[in-house]
Amino acid sequence: MTLTHLDAQGKARMVDVGDKAASRRQAVAEAWVHMQAETLQRILDGGFEKGDVFTVARIAGIQAAKRTAELIPLCHPLMLDQVQVELTAEPQHRRVHIQARCRLEGKTGVEMEALTAATVAALTLYDMCKAVDPAMTIEQLRVCEKLGGKTGHWRHPALTSQTD
């Protein structure tokens, strides 16, 4: 079976995964939001009128993962078993690390859902803080790891030398 987004005539289509066996699949994605030290401290102190920035960004990321097929053309709608979005302040680097983990038992991977969750969490953090720090940057969005499916366990080459 060839997995491609092109049909025999070269037209875009959703990949047919009907004949694939379901398996346990998981993907982890991450991103960083860099900001002024004062902005990060204000987040940690709960100083934004819009609410707890980390909680709102976490919820936004989870909701986005569940709606990935509505956002990404040709992406399969999936019944996710679990979505986790964690935001960790890194004051020494003036940034927030965002990690999204998605899991399911299915016929296709969840990399797009993890990437979408991390992206929307980062965008939400930016949106909530942009009035005080419009120069924030969202950087290094990437899939860190995926498990399951035909490829088995894959880890981003930049992370292979690190231990869990």
Automatic annotation (TrEMBL):
Superkingdom, taxonomy of origin: Bacteria
Domain Molybdopterin cofactor biosynthesis C (MoaC): 14-149
GO annotation, biological process: Mo-molybdopterin cofactor biosynthetic process
Residues binding substrate: 74-76, 112-113
GO molecular function, one term: cyclic pyranopterin monophosphate synthase activity
EC number(s) recorded for this UniProt protein: 4.6.1.17
This protein's record includes keyword Ribosomal protein: no
Function: Catalyzes the conversion of (8S)-3',8-cyclo-7,8-dihydroguanosine 5'-triphosphate to cyclic pyranopterin monophosphate (cPMP).
PANTHER family per the UniProt record, alphabetical: MOLYBDOPTERIN COFACTOR SYNTHESIS PROTEIN A
Record-given protein name: Cyclic pyranopterin monophosphate synthase
Organism per entry: Azomonas macrocytogenes
Gene this protein is translated from: moaC
